């Protein structure tokens, strides 16, 4: 007997996605997954040119996937990146704000430098404002693409630290907490105009950014004790929810904070 079950499609054919911080970690996993779903993808990188260009070539080259070198430390930087992506592919349907910085050293609030505070918020928040502002303007101006009535999708990548806080990393937690509030504000403002804004909040994930902490036996033991699943996440386990939120299957999701942390946010 032949089964008629052909699986559940997560297709983004005909769509254009911009993914920030796409040369490594969660960003690179998202770039790969969005390409598998049929989207054309532009992604940003800061300095890893050879890695970024190799990834773009592997996923189809300039007609399907491009790497854009762009520093993201201001609103103007964010606007410039959106402009480059639209110039390359003619439109923008999905924006994934994935880039960010997490200073790995402990910085007590009593001694944290103003320079560190401003640098973290500039990269994690100011550039996100410019990205979102320019993306929304583009999405509202362009014709709808695909079978749904969605004008666009925005996914902001925050953190469990946005909801639980993080001792000695107040700069990071504050910047990511702002993204959670931004998600809710954008949903209230834009859902009625056909732009869906949601947030994915990862916990500890095995990436270059977290490598130093995870490689330290004492730190690793301490953080694993806070995760009910008993392990850190894989980048693909974060990229999957990001993709889902940009598909018609998430057509009734707006303003959602999608926790992907092995249950850690519930026990902190």
Protein described:
The chain has 268 residues and is α/β, with parallel strands linked by helices. It has one domain: NAD(P)-binding Rossmann-like Domain (Rossmann fold, 3-Layer(aba) Sandwich), CATH 3.40.50.720. Helices cover 42% and strands 14% of the residues. It has a seven-stranded parallel sheet, sandwiched between helices. Strand 2, helix 2 and strand 3 form a beta-alpha-beta unit. The longest helix is centred in the middle third of the chain and has 28 residues. It starts with 15 loop residues before the first strand and ends in an 8-residue tail after the last strand.
Summarize the structure.
The protein is α/β, with parallel strands linked by helices and 268 residues long. It has helices at residues 25-36, 49-58, 75-89, 114-141, 161-164, 170-190, 211-215, 217-224, 235-244; strands at residues 16-19, 40-45, 65-69, 94-97, 152-157, 195-202, 257-260. The chain has one domain: NAD(P)-binding Rossmann-like Domain (Rossmann fold, 3-Layer(aba) Sandwich).
Q: Distance between termini?
A: 50 Å
Architecture per CATH nomenclature, i.e. the level-2 architecture: 3-Layer(aba) Sandwich
| Structural classification | alpha/beta
Q: Sum up the overall morphology in one term.
A: globular
Number of domains: 1
CATH superfamily (homologous) name: NAD(P)-binding Rossmann-like Domain
List SSEs in N-to-C order: EHEHEHEHEHHEHHHE
- Rounded to an integer in angstroms, the radius of gyration calculated over CA atoms is 18 Å
Which class in CATH terms?
Alpha Beta
pLDDT < 50 stretches: none
Q: Give me the number of helical elements.
A: 9
User: And the CATH topology?
Assistant: Rossmann fold
Fraction of residues in helix: 40-55%
Average pLDDT for all residues: 91
Beta-strand share of residues: 5-15%
Largest sheet: 7 strands, parallel
Question: Oligomeric form of this entry?
Answer: single chain
